[in-house]
Structure formats: structure tokens, C-alpha cells
Amino acid sequence: GAVVSQHPSRVICKSGTSVKIECRSLDFQATTMFWYRQFPKKSLMLMATSNEGSKATYEQGVEKDKFLINHASLTLSTLTVTSAHPEDSSFYICRAPSAGGGETQYFGPGTRLLVL
Amino acid sequence: GQQLNQSPQSMFIQEGEDVSMNCTSSSIFNTWLWYKQDPGEGPVLLIALYKAGELTSNGRLTAQFGITRKDSFLNISASIPSDVGIYFCAPLEGNEKLTFGTGTRLTIIP
After folding, report:
1. Is the terminal CB of chain A with fewer CB neighbours within 10 Å at N or C?
2. Which chain B residues are Cβ-neighbours of A95 within 8 angstroms?
3. If we measure between CA atoms, which residue out of A15, A88, A43 comes closest to residue B3?
4. How many Cβ atoms from other residues are within 10 Å of residue B71's Cβ?
5. Of B45, B33, B37, B24, nearest to B90 (Cα)?
């Protein structure tokens, strides 16, 4: 069946560096992907909608210059956390809807980011 | 903006007990989804609801779509250890935008 992968699964970086997280749809095309952030014991918060071939749409309060999203192909969206700080440490999950949308949503396994 | 509240925040129950949780929104939705998340993993779909008043079951899970389309309920009967986790309601906006409730953390006391 359809699968969404994320890479890396875990990353530790120093404060001030940038980290890129990849989200791939493995056997289907996704013109739209969604990025979520989840702090410990909290809900998944939608950060942005990644649109293939056009600019991402960011949710209110999410800094677009801090969280750069690129959706260069129909199977890959990347989220880059620029100049990471310890407060950016979180669990980042991507989601890709199936062609039909609705209940069929494919989530990546998540990326745990720790900024020291 | 839309507000989505889920209650209770956490539950501590004994194995075999039934569980009820609910989700309310300030907005109307046409589709409600319920997910379960285990630590360090992505959420897994449990039940999907499409019609106001609809009652749907999936094994020991039963969910209802509120008549007003602003709320939904999830019940788990005869809880077992693998039910431990966080449960999220997630109404679907349009066909793709999915927002998650605040979550209900279920713990089973030995």
C-alpha cells in the first residue's frame, strides 16, 4: 500500500544550525503535503501546507522564514528549520492525502529533532 | 479562528473498563476522524464519520458524529492494555485540511 517516509527519523543539532527534513510519498504522487509539529504530551499542530510547484501556505503564528518548505516534485516535500534553537526541539510529522482525499491520509513516521 | 476542544485530557482506568471521550468544535464539519497515536509514531486512523448523527463501530470502538456537526464522541468498550495511547479527534476541512484535537491520554492502571 501507499507509504510516506520521512528522513531523518532522529536528528540532534547545535543551536544556530539548519536542519532539513524530507517527506516522500513512495508509490503515489502528492501535489499537497502537510507539516505538523508536536511537542511532548501535546497535540499535532498544523504548521503549513506544502504545494507542489508553488509557495507553501503557513498557519497563523508559524514563521515562514524560519520553517522553509519546498515541494519541488510530486513525491518530495522538505521542511528546513533554519537557525534552530532549543525551543524548536519537537516531533515533526508530514502527511500526504491520497488522491481521493477524505479519510485516506498517509502520515510519515515522524522526525524527532533535538536542538542543543 | 476555529477552536477544537477534546475531553477529558487524560484518563486512568483499569483493564476491562469502558472509556468515553468527546470533541467539540466552534465550527461545523462534514467529516470527523478519530486517530490513536503511540509514542514516537504517527497517528493511526481508527474511525471515520461522514454524516450528522452517524454511529459507527470498529471492533470495540464506537464513534458518533454529533447532530449539530460540531462534535463527536468516541467510546472504547472493555479496554485492554494495547488501548494505551493518545486519542485525537480530527475533523476534516474540505477534502484535505486536517486539524487535531487536544488529545485524550489513556493510561491503564495495573
Report:
1. N
2. 98
3. A43
4. 18
5. B33
Percentages of chain B per state (helix, strand, coil), in multiples of 5: 5, 55, 40
Task: Give the closest-approach CA distance of A89 to chain B in angstroms.
Answer: 14
Chain B residues with CB under 8 Å of a chain A CB are: 1, 31, 33, 37, 40-43, 45, 48, 88, 92, 95-103, 105
Q: For chain B, which ranges sit under pLDDT 50?
A: none
| Mean pLDDT score, A82-88 | 96
Provide the pLDDT for residue B96.
81
pLDDT in tens, A48-83: 999 998 999 999 999 999 999 999 899 999 999 999
* B48 contacts B33 by C-beta, under 8 angstroms: yes
**H/E element holding B31?**
strand B31-37
Q: Which residue of B has its CA nearest to A93?
A: B42
Distances (CA, A) of A115 to A66, A89, A112, B24: 14, 5, 10, 35
Q: How many CB pairs under 8 A join A and B?
A: 52
